[in-house]
Amino acid sequence: DVQLQASGGGLVQPGGSLRLSCAAYGFSLNNYGMSWFREAPGKGREWVSFIKPYGGYAPYADFVEGRFTIFRDRAKNTVYLQMNNMKPEDTAVYYCAAARRSTATMSDSEYAYWGQGTLVTVSS
User: What is the pLDDT of residues 33-68, one digit of tens each?
Assistant: First the structure.
């Protein structure tokens, strides 16, 4: 069974940190570029970041402002999103997605596999 499983969401105070994980089952992420997206209440889905199959430079959405880091552990077949200095506006359901490409894309249709989403709430 091929699937992506996102986890690590939860409640965090403003200024706090969370690390999201996206584990792949039934296939290898080695040939896939990976993105994180998010969907806030009442808003559409927005792209957060992308990492190439073999790492290297990773682009981020402007709202990240240097607070997030995307990285991957090839041995664990998992991609992560480390989020620091979090803000209330980061509250959203976060999704990981896999695309068989090495250049970033924000187009949903380019992604073959999607995780189920993990809820992140930033609130005091």
Answer: 999 999 999 999 999 999 999 888 899 999 999 999
